[in-house]
Design brief:
The structure is a homodimer. Chain A is mainly alpha-helical. The first copy, chain A, contains eight helices and three strands; from the N terminus they run H-E-H-H-E-E-H-H-H-H-H. The first copy, chain A, has two domains: 82 residues, Winged helix-like DNA-binding domain superfamily/Winged helix DNA-binding domain (Arc Repressor Mutant, subunit A, Orthogonal Bundle); 86 residues. In chain A, strands 1-3-2 form a three-stranded antiparallel sheet. In chain A, a hairpin with a 7-residue loop joins strand 2 and strand 3. The longest helix of chain A has 30 residues. The first copy, chain A, is globular, with a radius of gyration of 20 Å. At the A-B interface, helix 1, helix 4, helix 5, helix 6 and helix 8 of A face helix 1, helix 4, helix 5, helix 6 and helix 8 of B. Chain A binds a DNA duplex through helix 2 and helix 3.
Chain lengths: 182, 182
Amino acid sequence: MALRHAVLAALLDRDLSGYQLTKLFDLGVSSFWHAASQQLYVELAKLEADGLLTGHEVVQQGRPNKRVFALTDTGLQELTRFTLAPTKPTSIRDDLLVKAYAAHAADRVKLAEQLEQRATQSQAKAEYLEEQLAKLLGGKSEAEYLRTAENIGPYLAGTRGKMYEREQATWCMWAAEALRAR
Amino acid sequence: MALRHAVLAALLDRDLSGYQLTKLFDLGVSSFWHAASQQLYVELAKLEADGLLTGHEVVQQGRPNKRVFALTDTGLQELTRFTLAPTKPTSIRDDLLVKAYAAHAADRVKLAEQLEQRATQSQAKAEYLEEQLAKLLGGKSEAEYLRTAENIGPYLAGTRGKMYEREQATWCMWAAEALRAR
DNA sequence: CACATCATGTAACCAGTTACATGATTGG
DNA sequence: CCAATCATGTAACTGGTTACATGATGTG
């Protein structure tokens, strides 16, 4: 079970609805996990059935009502247990890397174009994450924030996401350049 | 279909047996894709049935015989087609990132230990990949190699893997330090 | 009233993981 | 003869993706 713990983690210091989680786990936004809305609603139902979450209908004016989910004690315990359990490293699994490996079978210019396009996307995502991180800091220096903030988890994970996207962009540009130069 | 193209790419400039592919796609080794042997043998059977590969028994002395697979023309075409097809970006999907996000629910020291352990693993993997890359260079400078080598694909993909592991190690140490300092 | 956004789901399918199995050959 | 490595598979299960569906509410 994988999404499971990502959902529990997301609900750690705020309650969220399925729709809000969808936005959090959306591609382009998520720094620490990705999931589509369909998967989330299924998972939320399971988590509620297992007693790890409780859902509460929230009546809204101006928009449809929503069900907001909160961690139960059991849910929090399960999350804590998960953080202690050993996990194996996972490697990158990205079609673009396979394409790069298969460069010899590809049209060099078209592959370079794809790499450049991805570089742009990754750059944009990195910038978005950087903004989010700046918001978390709220004016403080990073060192200060890491010492004093209540929950530094989102900052730690967000930083990894930012690094990943930046580096992806750097590599894409480098590889595209290498292909174009031939 | 995912592993499919990774296998075709791996067979692009040399023929390999299921066992050799297993080692290539093994965790700890793979820079561009991961797969377990069970999955590989199934995939190889499918690829052969689909006419993208052909297998040939190779009689060996001193060890069990093996079946070596080679790309067919159709297989090569399929790989080329794949390199041209658009693909979406994929984000990191790593339990360790979820654990970091859930830092507030975790034992800080134990989480730091896990991060440090992962840093060590990633460092080792990065060094292994660096050796592989040096072998590919074969004494040439990178610039020279990228200009003149027949197939730079493995070098491009391997470099991404190396970068990823190095950065993972850096982040793990940084995050562990942040957790320990509290 | 059409379109965007908010909001929540079901069902079929596909890819990957885990568990289980087997056998050859060499070296200590 | 036992352990390590080489070599190849099957089957059940889990997690994730894709396709399909529906309805509320506000804005132009």
